């Protein structure tokens, strides 16, 4: 995309100034509309060292209310960031609805840089590209406006700027070894940058290559493309997004009604097995930490099915420093204003640690679906988006264990009644629990669809028969142990 690029001619000064003034005014007006219609805008500014990325961002934000934008300079990932999935640090920086986030370099700079430093194999590069395509498509599918700019200058221009900056003691710090290396290996960098842009160019998130020889001309190009992108986003905000066919291998699963719930274990056998299994899991946790394997355990199930007690028996075997339990309730306002997976990306464990989710991202295709908290297009699209999310975790090296805790309707009623009649347990039962119970049949349809469409070979569902809670607890421990032993 870079080798044979031909830019439009730079306008004369009078025309340039006139168009620049119009573009600035337009962006100021559009920012109000962006806020009103709650469209999140992510602007990625990539380019050559000394091409003026920071300057371009500085010019853009002069036309936006400071309360509605943030700027982040994305350097190489820190040690802490390297212990999370590749995309995690970008997902966590997503703007809230109605706000702008401008990134000075981002996932292109990281992946292209690693490729140039020969830190990625061909297979690893292709995997990263696939991740980026999914990431960018998910953003635009979920209402984000993603604008990607590459500030382009020639080898001669870059060398000239490096020399000018180095001459002045006050600007010398702005030139890094990477800038010098780029200039020395300009042709190689151009090839890698161009290939990356070809690999990630999409109709919903195209690349805009900016002629950055003149800073004012570069500013005009970016502002005009940005305002055009905002205009289209405002026009398209109510359009439904096409549903994608699942491309991930699925594991055949039974329907809930087909699962026998008569499984039980005697008290004495339970105590002995619990002690043995917890000891075994504790030993595995130590190995897990040493080998830096991340684990994600997600619990879903009927109200009063025994998720909390089940989780307690898992964590009872673990070192408290190496795990965290995340109880997931209704999203907070700042969470609701972002991509629905944002609050789960921000809770992922580090390598060697365990994250346990008491309810999870599957709320999108259950409670949000049935209570009308998202559109039909949103929850239908979510099956594939969730499979993609879990594929990212799997490719990162995480063990993903998903439990559905199953009981029947009569068992739930008995447990609800017991909770209501026991003062120490009344906090566990709410009016919402009773309302949800009235929709049991609707929820069962949704759960069956969820399990069928998201039980992939790399992140299958495990059904815990929990009419006898003791049986369910032992089964969960055995499954966790088995999955950890596989990877260890």
Structure characterization notes:
The chain is α/β, with parallel strands linked by helices. The protein folds into 2 domains: 13-236, P-loop containing nucleotide triphosphate hydrolases (Rossmann fold, 3-Layer(aba) Sandwich), CATH 3.40.50.300; 256-487, Rossmann fold (3-Layer(aba) Sandwich). The chain contains 20 helices and 10 strands. The strands form 2 sheets. The protein has a 5-stranded parallel beta sheet with strand order 2-3-1-4-5, with helices on both faces. Helix 2 (53-61) crosses helix 10 (215-236) and helix 5 (107-116) packs across helix 9. It is elongated and about 85 Å long. The two termini are 44 Å apart. The mean pLDDT is 96.
> By helix and strand content, what is the structural category?
alpha/beta
Give the overall average pLDDT. Answer: 96
For the record, the count of structural domains works out to 2
**Spatial ordering of strands, largest sheet:** 2-3-1-4-5
The helix content, as a percent range, equals 40-55%
Topology summary:
Blueprint: H1 13-36, E1 41-47, H2 53-61, E2 69-73, H3 79-82, H4 88-91, E3 100-104, H5 107-116, H6 122-141, E4 145-152, H7 155-167, H8 177-184, H9 186-199, E5 207-211, H10 215-236, H11 267-290, E6 295-301, H12 307-315, E7 323-327, H13 333-336, H14 342-345, E8 354-358, H15 367-370, H16 376-396, E9 399-406, H17 409-421, H18 431-438, H19 440-454, E10 461-465, H20 469-487
Parallel strand pairs: 1-3, 1-4, 2-3, 4-5, 6-8, 6-9, 7-8, 9-10
Helix pairs in contact: 1-10, 2-10, 5-9, 6-16, 11-20, 12-20
